[in-house]
């Protein structure tokens, strides 16, 4: 498993599970519908003790 990403992501929102349209060639994969959902997700995960 060395050299593998810590986790794979299949193109759905990590917050609400909606299918996201990935934009190729723009660097990072989208993981949330909106930046606000990303913030909410990370805040929730931190509250649960995950180092996100
Ligand atoms: Zn979402």
Structure description:
The radius of gyration is 12 Å and the shape is elongated. The mean pLDDT is 84. The chain has 52 residues and is an all-alpha fold. 25% of the residues lie in helices and 0% in strands. The chain has 1 helix and no strands. It starts with 34 loop residues before the first helix and ends in a 5-residue tail after the last helix.
DSSP summary: helix tally: 1
Q: Report the uncertain regions.
A: none
Element order, helices and strands? H
Helical content, roughly? 25-40%
End-to-end gap? 21 Å
Rounded to the nearest angstrom, the radius of gyration is 12 Å
Given helix and strand content, the structural type is mainly alpha
Strand content: under 5%
Name the overall outline. Answer: elongated
The largest sheet is: none
Mean pLDDT over all positions: 84
Identify the bound ligands. zinc ion
Strand segment tally? 0
Identify the notable features of this structure and list them briefly.
single chain, 52 residues, mainly alpha, 25% helix, elongated, binds zinc ion
List the helices and strands and how they pair.
Layout: H1 35-47
Zinc ion (ZN) binds near residues 13, 16, 32 and 33.
Concise description?
This protein is mainly alpha-helical and 52 residues long.
């Amino acid at each position: 498993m060395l050299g593998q990403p810590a986790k794979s992501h299949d193109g759905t929102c990590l917050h609400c599970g909606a299918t996201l349209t990935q934009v190729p060639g723009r660097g990072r994969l989208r993981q949330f519908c909106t930046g606000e959902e990303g913030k909410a997700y990370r805040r929730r995960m931190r509250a649960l003790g995950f180092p996100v």
